[in-house]
């Protein structure tokens, strides 16, 4: 299956990025709404973006006691979203409750487990009390997530290969930390180019600033899609 591109909306309001989104209609299929926009605008921002014809990945990284996370999944279930994230470090019971709520209220929704944030390297992880290398911790949490009923993960591109070796082939792997060759790494410490991530097994790559900050966002998106098509 071809690797798909997800566009990150790093803004507080859909109106801020609306001109670029209208230009990108028909070029980009998926967009990611994160905490910044969702906390500023709430569910209406999801509806506005979906009304423009985009598939919405809602990246809230839910992490709380099992009942609260399950209720949060139930709360967003009526929204026009296709993906939703939660933190795998919330544990087995939390993930199982989330899966049960998803199956009951949003059968179409793909729950994605976040393993180790792509902004974290080995020293940063060690500061939180985890002595394992990032790749080892990602695989540990990835196995736990799939065993708990999740069907997809968010991971650094550098963990794609070990996860593909450890998990069933049909698990979706959504990969931030993607930078076209020559682009600024920004706040990401574990990165790959689009083609490298596709070859390593990413089902989706997540890209924001290299598209939105480009002089021509449509041309930048098309260049990434062409790179993916050539892998």
Kindly describe this structure.
By secondary structure, this protein is an alpha/beta fold. The chain has one domain: Aldolase class I (TIM Barrel, Alpha-Beta Barrel). The protein is 45% helix and 17% strand. An 8-stranded parallel beta barrel has the order 1-2-3-4-5-6-7-8, surrounded by 7 helices. Helix 1 (14-24) links the parallel strand 1 and strand 2. The protein is globular. The chain starts with a strand and ends with a helix. The mean pLDDT is 91.
Tags for this model:
8 strands; globular; 11 helices
Mean pLDDT: 91
Can you tell me the number of structural domains? 1
- The CATH superfamily name is Aldolase class I
Number of helices: 11
Shape: globular
**In total, how many beta strands?**
8
- Secondary-structure-derived class: alpha/beta
Poorly predicted runs: none
Assign the CATH architecture: Alpha-Beta Barrel
Strand adjacency order, main sheet: 1-2-3-4-5-6-7-8
Order of helices and strands: EHEHHEHEHEHHEHEHEHH
Q: Strand share of the residues?
A: 15-25%
What is the CATH T-level topology?
A: TIM Barrel
Query: What's the CATH first level?
Result: Alpha Beta
The major pleated sheet works out as:
8 strands, parallel, barrel
Give the helix proportion (percent range). 40-55%
Distance, first to last CA: 11 Å
Radius of gyration in whole Å, from Cα? 17 Å
């Amino acid at each position: 299956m071809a690797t798909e591109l997800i566009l990150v909306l790093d803004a507080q309001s859909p109106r801020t990025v609306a001109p670029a989104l209208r230009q990108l209609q028909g070029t980009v299929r998926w967009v990611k709404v994160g905490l910044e926009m969702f906390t500023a605008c709430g569910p209406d921002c999801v509806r506005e973006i979906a009304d423009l014809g985009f598939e919405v990945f809602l990246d809230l990284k839910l992490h709380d006691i099992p009942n609260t996370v399950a209720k949060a999944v139930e709360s967003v279930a009526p929204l026009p979203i296709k993906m939703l994230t939660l933190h795998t470090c919330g544990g087995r019971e939390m993930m199982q409750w989330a899966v049960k709520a998803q199956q009951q209220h949003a059968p179409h929704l793909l729950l994605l487990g976040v393993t180790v944030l792509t902004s974290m390297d080995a020293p940063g992880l060690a500061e939180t009390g985890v002595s394992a290398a990032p790749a080892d911790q990602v695989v540990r949490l990835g196995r736990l997530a799939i065993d708990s009923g999740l069907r997809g993960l968010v991971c650094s591109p550098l963990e794609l290969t070990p996860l593909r070796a450890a998990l069933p082939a049909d698990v979706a792997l959504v990969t931030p930390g993607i930078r076209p060759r020559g682009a600024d790494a920004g706040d990401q410490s574990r990165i790959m180019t689009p083609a490298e991530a596709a070859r390593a097994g990413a089902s989706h790559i997540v890209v924001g600033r290299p598209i939105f900050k480009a002089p021509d966002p449509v041309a930048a998106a098309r260049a990434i899609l062409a790179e993916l098509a050539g892998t």
